[in-house]
Specification:
There is one protein chain. The chain is an all-alpha fold. It has a domain of about 80 residues: Tetratricopeptide repeat domain (Serine Threonine Protein Phosphatase 5, Tetratricopeptide repeat, Alpha Horseshoe). The protein has 19 helices and 2 strands. The protein has a two-stranded antiparallel sheet with strand order 1-2. A hairpin with a 2-residue loop joins strand 1 and strand 2.
Length: about 400
């Protein structure tokens, strides 16, 4: 309906223009350097239209090669995208070799081959072709040098998947040299240092890792505790242990593993009196088995007073195995053999362990009960065995 209306208007307009032109075609005279060109208005209009048509045609001819090239490029890009999609589908379906070939072919005609090479590297990795995987990664870097961080991260993740921890660490260190503030790389490095138990390197990198906030708070706490624990465990003397404890963040000074390392360090450094006082104070605030256990190992200046304190705690913790073992050890220091034996036998009935059997065996030897001591040692060793020995096969004689 609309098109018909436009056609009718066009016919009416043409008829009107034709009527006026035929009634009076007009006259145009153009004088150029003595030459006079005369024509009617319709002829001038036709010549002008022809000139514009000629210019339009010349322009089309000039830009045709570029347009053809652009069209060909769009076609190649579309074909490359289709190949890449099919390649990714093949890889997703487990056809790694076929997918790798398709992704590689697509890369040769792609405007941005980086993704193709990275996906081809993944396909090679899934086939266990590590050398070819690294070749694809090298090509990815050569094609797009500005994507070096992405390539290195991809390589590190592949190496981690293979369990190649040292190689992955070398790759991440190279990335760190290129980009000091790469949060993901720092997080991966910290995880690797923790796995490799490289505590000094982990300690150095932790402030940078915390700054970027890409690691969960709980994981950061675990790493921080382990780093400080290592420093406490390696402290050679009393001054070193006190300095190491001073560096522990206040929020972590109630962590049980750090407290154990600290008190053991104090004892190792000969600061038993300080350790005893600190343990008593800590146990008043929070009763914890590992600290009670350590109280029995502290060599205080007054063993009798130390035993009296432990037995005072028994009023409220009469069946605490850690406290009973501590009381037994303090009885041994005070040469109260009978009480020590009673405490140890109670601990064995509540929670036997190789450590308790060792103390019990030593006491029985002290009392001259060699056979009973041997039984105690044997029971303790039996608890240490993690796997049963295989049965000896019957030996049968051939008839």
């Amino acid at each position: 309906m609309k098109i018909g209306f436009i056609v009718i208007l066009a016919l009416l307009a043409s008829a009107t223009i034709t009527y006026f032109v035929l009634a009076d075609p007009g006259y145009v005279a153009i004088s150029i350097r003595g030459y006079l060109v005369e024509m009617s208005v319709p002829v001038l209009v036709l010549l002008t239209a022809a000139l514009f048509a000629l210019l339009w045609l010349i322009r089309k001819i000039i830009i045709a090669p570029r347009r053809i090239g652009e069209a060909a490029g769009r076609y190649r890009s579309a074909r490359s995208g289709q190949k890449m999609t099919r390649g990714m589908i093949e890889v997703a379906e487990g056809n790694f070799a076929r997918g790798e070939r398709m992704l590689a072919r697509a890369a040769s005609t792609s405007d941005s081959p980086l993704f193709n090479y990275l996906q081809a590297a993944r396909a090679a990795h899934l086939q266990g072709r590590d050398a070819r995987r690294d070749d694809w990664l090298k090509l990815a870097y050569q094609e797009v040098p500005e994507a070096a961080n992405a390539v290195l991260l991809t390589q590190a993740e592949f190496q981690l998947d293979r369990g190649q921890l040292e190689q992955a660490l070398a790759t991440l260190r190279r990335l760190d040299e290129n980009s000091r503030d790469h949060g993901h790389a720092l997080a991966l490095m910290a995880r690797l240092y923790f796995q490799l138990q490289d505590w000094s390197s982990l300690r150095e990198i932790l402030p940078r890792v915390k700054k970027h906030g890409q690691v969960k708070a709980g994981t950061l706490t675990t790493w921080t505790v382990r780093v400080h624990q290592e420093q406490l465990d390696k402290a050679a003397d009393g001054d070193a242990i006190l300095l190491a404890w001073k560096k522990v963040p206040h929020a972590l000074k109630t962590d049980i593993s750090l407290l154990e390392s600290y008190y053991k360090g104090l004892m190792r450094g000969g600061l038993h009196e300080k350790a005893e006082k600190a343990l008593v104070s800590a146990l008043k605030t929070n009763w914890r088995g590992p600290l009670v256990h350590l109280f029995g190992l502290v060599e205080g200046t007054d063993a009798s007073k130390q035993l009296k304190r432990a037995e005072g705690w028994l009023a409220n913790h009469s069946e605490d195995p850690d406290l009973l073992l501590t009381a037994a050890r303090l009885c041994l220091r005070n040469e109260l053999w009978g009480k020590a034996r009673s405490y140890l036998e109670t601990v064995i009935s509540l929670r036997p362990s190789p450590e308790v059997y060792q103390e019990y065996g030593a006491l029985l030897n002290q009392l001259g009960e060699a056979d009973a001591a041997a039984d105690a040692y044997r029971d303790g060793l039996g608890m240490l065995a993690t796997n049963n020995l295989p049965a000896i096969p019957h030996i049968t004689s051939e008839a």
